[in-house]
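Task card 7
Instruction: Convert sequence to structure tokens.
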Amino acid sequence: MDLQLFAERTEEPTPRRLRKAREEGRVARSMDLVAGLGLVAATLALRGVGGLSVSQVTGSMAGAFETLSPAELTPETTAVLLQDWVLVALRALLPIALAVMAIGVVAGALQTQFIFTVRTLVPRFSVLNPINGLQRIFSLRTLTEVLKGLIKLAAIGYIAYRSVRGLVPQFPNLIAQTVPVGLAAIADMVLDVMLAVGLAYLVVGVLDYGYQYWEFRRSLRMTKQEVKQEHREQEGAPELKSRQRQRMRELAMRRRAIKEVPNADVVVTNPTHFAVALKYVPSEDTAPRVVAKGADLLAQEIKKIARAHDVPLVENRALARGLYYDVEVGRLIPPEYYQAVAEVLAFVYNLRRQSRQAGQE
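Output:
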């Protein structure tokens, strides 16, 4: 059983999880925001160029009636005439439609951050499962969406009611107006109501987007174990990292051994498993210093370098093991090793003195 199913999701989604969700086409979006912007854009477009569009259509109709006689209105000519009127109406409404479409595309693109993926087009057969369907119908999210829809309907309906109610006193004045003036006044009233409803819809859309963003982030929350697992996947397994660090330390120690061992005073060996190179400069240090150390293959290489540069090798199993584990490269030996190291150095210095004397003789 996967215990992750019961773990509490308290951690915010990581950038990797957010990026993966985006690649899958899962982003926060609100159709109410797009609809609100579209309605406001349509209203402003109609108020801006709607009069010109109506003039184009009515002018085309008036010109047709003025040039055609009743005898010429046959089914064929009527069909052609209607076709011309439809084309004129489409040309007149095209700028408005393009403006609304552009606003809708831009609003959708800004919400999704211009994401494009085909994964959402791949059929998911899990949606055909009746059990999953029932779970979605009776889920908390479905209930929330229903409540949101009712609140949205009530809010927008109230705004529309208040807008129409404010225009009711103007209705009696329309009776005394001519037909064109009356129609223009009614059109202005309708546009006022549309604008009020569109702005209300836009406010609802902004609030809905905020909720959708919060719900989207909440749905991507992770358990502590998932965060740790993702971190391990990105950084690498601890065992692998440990081996890499060990390898880097070995390379660093090897480079140091090649550089420092030729100048060492003595190399203390185990004799096969450990090798520790020591150097003592009384004018600079208060005690001998470990300048290189190694185990196994590196120990053999240290001894090889020491032999090539006539550095004495002294076998002392306990001292070599102790220095290897207790003293880092570059550090002075601790006091508990003073006596043993002093004996080794005294032995080395005695060998050197005897060698010099033999050379002089």
